Amino acid sequence: MIRVQEYRPQAFTDFTKDENVKVYQEALAKVRQEIVGKHYPLIIDGQKVDTAERMVSLNPCDTDEVVGTTAAATKEHVDQAIAGAWKAFESWKNWDMDARARILLKASAILKRRRLEACAIMSIEAGKNYAEADVEVAEAIDFLEYYARSAMKYAHFGSAETTWFEGEENGLMWIPLGVGVSISPWNFPAAIFLGMLAAPIVVGNCMVVKPADNAGVIAGFIADIMLEAGLPAGVLQFLPGHGSEIGDAMTGHPKTRFITFTGSVPVGLRIHEVAAKVQPGQKWIKRTVMELGGKDALIVDETADIENAVTSAVQSAFGFNGQKCSAMSRLIVVDDVYDEVVGKVVERAGKLTMGTGEENANVTAVISQKAFKSISEYQKVGAGEGKVLLGGEAPGEHNGKKGNYIQPTIIGDVDRNARISQEEIFGPVVAVFRAKDWQDALDIANSTVYGLTGGVCSNSRERLEEAREKFEVGNLYFNRKITGAIVGVQPFGGYNMSGTDSKAGGPDYLSNFMQLKTVTERW
Length: 523
Ligand code: NAD
Hints:
The chain has helices at residues 18-34, 75-92, 97-113, 115-125, 130-150, 191-202, 216-228, 243-251, 265-276, 306-318, 335-350, 369-385, 419-422, 438-445, 461-470, and strands at 38-40, 42-44, 47-49, 54-59, 62-71, 168-176, 179-183, 206-210, 236-238, 258-262, 287-291, 296-300, 328-334, 387-390, 397-398, 401-402, 409-412, 429-435, 453-457, 475-478, 514-522. It is of the alpha/beta class. A hairpin with a 2-residue loop joins strand 2 (42-44) and strand 3 (47-49). It is globular, with a radius of gyration of 23 Å. Bound molecules: nicotinamide-adenine-dinucleotide. The site of nicotinamide-adenine-dinucleotide has 32 residues, from helix 8 and helix 9.
């Protein structure tokens, strides 16, 4: 078995130290010189393939700046990539698990060396401030390290237990599914993109991957690292393209064996539907692994440590401008402490600085014009559904730079059935609810179709135990922020409409991409 030390998550960088800020700024300068403006073609069967159309990635904090471009795959490229991946599968499926895991570990070593560059790209391309970019690249490295080790438990015949039966040998073998499609979102364009391809690949599948439309540069950077680490041609087919144009061709293809998707509920359900329809020549039921949206709530009751609750709420709501699937978009406060808690949250959030990712501002611009329009529309809807306590404006510029800037917005005394209570906004807009008591708060928390993350700030042991059982989410946090799951520590994924609860970074995640065969020999 491959010799590695026990898995340990990467440490985060402390940006209160001047020397760490200095090296980050040097990395920004290096990326501006060497990567900004670069073009990333498709990669099919190990060859770079270019297209006439180019997808343009803009800096959300300065939309006049082009960060880079990628090729735009067509349906013909999808056909070629899937056919090439099946060819590569014939040998890749027979590689030793050790050898496949070694490639992930080498990729991790390269990414550790280039960690600051990856961070700097995301500061420019996605508007991540230093800490947000740093924790994301740490997560990307963690996925490689964790999945390389997790793969070992699926390596041998008999590694899954069966009951002994006299006179026979019985055992289970894990086998890879074949060629899968991975479609990822822009909000964790390094970590989720990488985790979703590394997991199926390490256990012997070949992947056709489509990164998000708005973050092609960091995806191209990561794909290059995987190839540099030694993935054979065809195992990873890199296919940036418009979801609306090639999405159905990828998910509906008769030779696609499974789909791993992270993104919004409407697109996820569309994929699920397309994948369910059997195409001529198809000989399997496609498997879908879905990580979808959320409407995540934090409850604060009258026994809570108020300072801790306020910090938890502000961090959960406005980290990366609320553009995390785990972000708190609903704050539920028990009436007794409503005025105090909400007053302090508004005061603290009002002090957040606005600016660019490169300036390391607390609040930066949201990813795209499309997101800007949708979120600013929700600000208006919210103003009619409650009392605007903070923000409410979408300036669309900052310090003379045109960008998708939206003010952190808090809307108080919202009804649980309002649109801003039920619909995912995916930006810095929080709905606040006044709950009669603890039971009412728990009812409000469970009143959406989602079930991704949630939290409770309380010092009542009974209530925490009740929430442990009744709060309907895949990731539940007590007395802390509800974002920032760490690979292996807090396996991540939601249920109900938030997904298939496949738990990325969890002990059984790799089994999503394998099937089991039972083999019996009569002795
Ligand atoms: P999105 O659903 O708009 O797009 C996700 C991906 O799907 C993109 O690559 C897009 O090009 C592609 N796509 C679009 N139409 C398609 C189609 N018809 N067929 C196939 N693919 C298609 O989501 P987004 O805006 O990129 O990301 C934000 C969403 O992702 C939010 O809803 C957020 O909650 C969710 N998210 C969930 C998790 C999780 O772990 N549960 C993590 C991150 C983000």
